[in-house]
Specification:
It is a single chain. The longest helix is centred in the N-terminal third of the chain and has 16 residues. The two termini are about 15 Å apart. The strands form five sheets. The chain has a six-stranded mixed β-sheet, sandwiched between helices. The protein has four domains: about 130 residues, ATPase, nucleotide binding domain (Nucleotidyltransferase, domain 5), CATH 3.30.420; about 35 residues, no CATH class; about 90 residues, Nucleotidyltransferase, domain 5; about 60 residues, ATPase, substrate binding domain, subdomain 4 (Actin, Chain A, domain 4, Alpha-Beta Complex), CATH 3.90.640. By secondary structure, the chain is α+β, with helices and mostly antiparallel strands. About 40% of the residues lie in helices and about 25% in strands. It is built from 13 helices and 18 strands.
């Protein structure tokens, strides 16, 4: 333990929110230093990643749906867990090297946030990927706890706090009290499902095929979970499924709202299930404390409003909701000696 503390003084320890859509890295004393799409580009024939730094993150995301036949841009995580072990390892290794920047000879200690519903096999894959990617020691913390820490909730007090983290591939909701999760729910539904619903709507309604980046743009610009004061419209271009030619059409925010209603309702039902299992005294606290939301998916217009209507509880957005989990892993690093074994779900030495 003393030796670990000593070498820790010379390493750049970091917390990682390994998300389906975006990976964020937080460094002790510096905050969130990296926020990049979880996308990797590789050669189809060889399966090898393109030149380091030219095919990971934002650069690779811009290639989605636009690559030539010889190149493939993929997202190695699906529904919050690793779908491709080797590609995830390459991506993590690049991000760790980029942040560490070869400063010091000691490999970093890494904390990674994982979905609370992850299986033992999926957990082991995260541990092994991070260790092989260049971490000296790997600690895991469940996303709702990291999100609650990052949101500044009073997790160690004898009072209920509820966090709802809507990510790209999963949504996590948990009631926390006395530094532990009283009850939680994890569903593999998130912002990606909103995008998929928009793609399907364009196919069925307009016979127009659009790509994932176009669907995400539609969601961000005119998507909503609750009616808007002024409904919006947007020009959308894609490929006509019948003629096979490029075509443009106009869609409305009301259409998008109806298209994504199913995944939105699934998230609401998961929140209700968590609340139904909450002890009465903790439920009483939530009447005044309400629900705190974070994650990129939580920024969908009106999502907080429909959740408040469905639960009858006050709902507010955390400060900097997109980086909440990453910042929580950074705070965990600052208090790792005190919280070790309480919040973490496992560890592995390099």
């Amino acid at each position: 333990m003393i030796f670990d503390r000593l070498i820790g003084l010379f390493s750049i320890d970091m917390g990682i929110d390994l998300g389906t859509a975006t990976t964020k890295v937080c460094v002790r004393g510096r905050g969130v230093v990296l926020c990049e799409p979880s996308v990797v580009a590789l050669h189809k024939d060889t399966g090898k990643v393109l030149l380091d730094g030219m095919a990971v993150g934002e650069t690779a995301k811009r290639m989605l749906g636009k690559t030539p036949a010889s190149i493939q841009a993929i997202r190695p995580l699906k529904e919050g867990v690793i779908a491709d072990f080797d590609i995830t390892e390459s991506m993590l290794g690049y991000f760790i090297r980029r942040v560490h920047n070869r400063r010091g000879l000691i490999k970093p200690r890494v904390v990674i946030a994982i979905p609370s519903g992850i299986t033992a096999v999926e957990k082991r894959a995260v541990l092994s990927s991070a260790a092989r990617a260049g971490a000296r020691k790997v600690h895991l913390i469940v996303e709702p706890m990291a999100a609650a820490i990052g949101a500044g909730l009073p997790i160690e007090e004898p009072v209920a706090s509820m966090i709802v983290d809507v990510g790209g591939g999963t949504s996590e909701m948990a009631v926390i009290s006395l530094a532990d999760i009283a009850c939680s729910e994890s569903v593999r539904i998130g912002g990606d499902d909103f995008d998929d619903a928009v793609v399907e709507h364009m196919k069925k309604t307009y016979s127009l095929l659009i790509g994932p980046q176009t669907a995400e743009s539609i969601k961000i610009k005119i998507g909503s979970a609750y009616r808007l004061d002024e409904e919006l419209t947007m020009d959308v271009s894609g490929r006509d499924l019948i003629a096979g030619l490029p075509r443009k059409t106009v869609i409305t925010s009301q259409e998008v709202r109806e298209a994504i209603a199913e995944p939105v309702q699934a998230i609401i039902e998961a929140i209700k299930r968590a609340l139904e299992r909450t002890e009465p005294e903790l439920s009483a606290d939530l009447v005044s404390n309400g629900i705190v939301m974070c994650g990129g998916g939580a920024m969908l217009k009106g999502l907080d409003t429909v959740i408040a209507q469905a639960t009858g509880l006050p709902v507010r957005m955390a400060d900097e909701p997109i980086t909440c989990v990453a910042r929580g892993t950074g705070v965990f690093l600052d208090h790792i000696d005190r919280w070790r074994g309480t919040f973490e779900t496992g560890d592995e030495d390099m």
